[in-house]
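We give the chain.
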Amino acid sequence: MTRHFFVYTLVLMCMSMTACAQRNSEGKHYKEMVDSFAAMPPISSSDIVMLGDSHTECGGDWNQYFPGAKNIQNRGIIGDDARDILKRLSQVSADCPKAIFFECGANDLSYGYSAERVASDILMVVDSIRSSCPNTRLFVQSVFPLNEDFGRWKKLEGRTDDVPVVNKLLKQGCKERRIEFIDLFVKFKEPSSNKMRREISRDGLHLKPSGYKIWAQTIAPYISRLNKQ
């Protein structure tokens, strides 16, 4: 399989797999991804891990965004929420990595959870990482904005303005825990609005390559510093 065909297939999956009411960990894709991670060399103490949901998985090989990088491992799974990620966290934390860039939240909102519940579940994962890997540098990334104008994600209808509420709670929770919070939301939303910028989104939820470029540029200084350590 060529790299271009793999990327194209991944994009189609990201666009077709919706946030759903069924637990993601009960689904075929989740189990296939967990099995594929288990078959890979284990995460090492020199690795940087991108941990999250479809936003992370659909980034593909994250090393491509950072010249010279070879140690960035993608551990995103389409459809994941915080509790699904918690179930598979041992695959990441068994041999604690150098750093983890963690994001999730859209699928949590699709279950109808309150902003407070979403933030609490995400911080539950944060606390688990801190407990199992106290020396791992942990970066919590904000929940991405939504754009309901696409009319694609029925289970996310009416949740656009809940995203900044979740992010405010996450920022406060990270401050209390002395963990770095990276505000991606402000870079991806439209001016004077909480909506995802239309030109960088494929469907009101997932990102175009231009969106991944912005994401990579935002975390590049952190990646650079980590790779110098």
